[in-house]
Amino acid sequence: MVGWTLYSMFSNALANLRARGIKAGFSFLHDTDSLFVISETTRIPVPEGGFLYFLIVLSGGAAGTWLLSRYARRHRKRLADDNVLVTVAIGLLVIAPGLVLYVTGHTIRTVEYAVPSTYGMGLLTGLMNTIRLAAISVALGTLVGMVIGIARLSSNWLVRTLAGAFIEVTRNIPLLLQVFFWYFAVLRTLPPVRNSLHLGNLLILNNRGAILPHPVAEPGLAVFLASVVLGATVVFYYSRYVKLHRDRTGKALPLFWPSVGSLTVPPALATLWLGMPLSFTLAELKGFNYFGGLTLSPEFTAMLVSLTLYSGGFIAEIVRSGIQAIPRGQTEAALSIGLTRGRVLQLVILPQARRIIIPPLTANWLGTIKDTSLGVAVGYPELVAIGGTILDVSGHAMEIIGLTMFFYMLTTLLVSLFMNWYNAKVQLRT
Amino acid sequence: MRAAVEMAQVGRRPPPARIRWGPVRWMAANLFNSWLNVLLTLLAAWIAWKTLSGLFMWGIWNAVFGTTPEPCRGISGACWSVVGDYWRVFLSGRYPEEERWRVYTAFLMILIMLTTSAVGTVRRTRWLPALWLMTVALVFTLVRGGVFGLRGVSTQYWGGLLITFGLSSVGLAVGMPVGVLLALGRTSNRMPVIKTVCVGFIELVRSVPFIMLLIMSSIMLPMFFPRGWDMDHLLRAQIATIMSAAANSAEITRGGLAAIGRGQLEAAKAIGLNYWKMMGLVVLPQALRHMLPVFVSMFIIFVKDTSLVVVVGLFDLLGAARLAVGNPKWMGKDIESFVFVGLVYFTICFAVSRMSRRLEAKYRVAAH
């Protein structure tokens, strides 16, 4: 019966499409008849030349790492425990693709959506906008959530209460209402360009959005980045050594200051040698608009602010309940063997709380990625919005909705695979 | 020997003096016990003062309460007149003016049912489900009209809090049983085809944003039916909420089922119960009790998520707020309108979440 229902639904759909004169299939994606304008576009690298090499080396590196981990498992080791294997894995995953990008970077060709273009390009642009919004708001939301969650546990009554108020307000008001509030009630009512609100030249607010200084790469950037990578590598191996030394002898070596040193000294030397790696061009008012700054559109800003606050409230609650779930006895036992409060948090509480926090945190990240689709309500051109426009123009409902669903399912799958892997790594091994 | 003497002396010592917690001592211990805390306290106090005093001055002291836009000219506070003028729309959308009493009666009936259901003696009667079914049927007839001399009101005029509550509670009431069936299908190992269908449905619906489901059901659903069938727009949104509720409660139920020990299943089988009796009499009653708080918090999520129906052109509570500021009379009163609607949502969700927390505490005590 289920089969019959599905079959009749499918045949009805095909009959309906035929009646409207629409051919099924994905060929419409590369016909050049996309004539609508997208307000925010991102440059998309074309998979040829340098970018193709980069992709090949990166996927080769991933495959190599996978083989390495299998090899390690066969020899009853864990990849992360063996210094040689870890070095090879880092070489494959980070250094080789980085080198390829450095050598062939100038041959990367990017394309941008411009009318007239193909529907495929339109969808890709929407995808890039979704990814950009999701990545920034997940990162900022996690940061806000961590800070507020820890503030919620503060011994200071006022700080605790304030954090609680923030959590309750952001969690109990629908996200779309928050988006509308920031978009219609705040950002759209800002003054026009002539009377912009200023915070020096650093942040300019007007009804065309928020304008920030635009970072520009200087010649020393490559060396600077290389020195940062060098410092991070040193910290990585040194902290492994410290942990090994502690497990073996029970003595703790200093970790914090050497790490700070190796993370700051090489970049500082590089800066002294080659000058600042980045310079910032400030926006200037020329004629009727600001030029030279990094302009965030009102739609993007409204989405970013509301997603950050909304997911921040939820993550704060996740962090709080994760830390509070650790029994008080753990803290008391750790204090009684003479650890300081900071060490108790670092060595006893956080490693255990991490295990509790990760699964709901993953669910929240996935939720935030899905919530970027609310951009359609204020006209931020993300995947669902552009998909909807193409659907209206071309009538290929099934294909568009199928592609959009495929993207969301793929993202969900990838994120949950990664987080499951990470979760399995930090769980207790029995 | 000496230790014993010391112990005896310790036993004779008076108990330590009790600390009297006056406000000053409390502040010294909780707010000003270190330099960092002093700094934090001052910062937090400044933020709290700025926010609260700003809200008070804007929302109450300098605000205008009325029903016409004229007194709002040139004031620095909020103009609550937009709410005074549009509260009927916030409650029932574009429902015809002279028929609104029917919606209010419906709200009143639901409210009476909710309060009486909370009373223990009523809750224990066997008539309660039947009573609820009757109420729901009565409410639907009253709002829909078309019989008993009531004027028929098409669903396109429904709106406001009416459909916010309607969509979310009907979505949950229909979606939950479907979700339980889906979860049973997913956990069963004897019917691979049904299992695949269930897993496919659950994963598909859960991985797609709710907004996509709404757009899908308002665009794609009509395509699946023979030409000429016209589907009600509210019904399309309702189908999307039911699908989402079913998939999510299936996932919750799976968690609840996993919490039931194998011994229960084996014992039920051993006394000769078949599958449906085993599930219906032994497993599900226990699992559902564990899951109750989760379902309550799912209701909150649904009340919030129904606001997305604005995107497919329905006027729920949030849509009514947009409707109000769309009127030229109230142009630029976005903040007042959104803040008021936000307050309504906050009150509902906060109250229900507190209730869920109490339920959780109650069942945790009962479990141990």
Describe, in plain words, how this protein is organized in 3D.
The complex is a heterodimer of chains A (430) and B (368). Chain A is an alpha+beta fold and 430 residues long. Among the domains of chain A are: 68 residues; 58 residues. Chain A contains 13 helices and 10 strands. Chain B has 368 residues and is mostly helical. In chain B, 71% of the residues lie in helices and 0% in strands. In chain B, helix 5 packs antiparallel against helix 7, helix 8 packs antiparallel against helix 9 and helix 14 packs antiparallel against helix 15. Chain B is globular and about 70 Å long. The two termini of chain B are 45 Å apart.
Structural class of chain B: mainly alpha
Report the count of strand segments of chain A.
Answer: 10
How many strands, what sense, and barrel or not for the largest sheet of chain A? Answer: 4 strands, antiparallel
Total strands of chain B: 0
Q: Which protein chains are joined by the largest interface, and how many residues does each one contribute?
A: A-B, 48 and 53 residues
Distance between the termini of chain B: 45 Å
Task: Give the termini distance of chain A in whole angstroms.
Answer: 47 Å
Enumerate the strands of the largest sheet of chain A in spatial order, edge to edge or round the barrel. 3-4-5-10
Which parts of chain A are unreliable, with pLDDT below 50 for 5 consecutive residues or more?
Answer: none
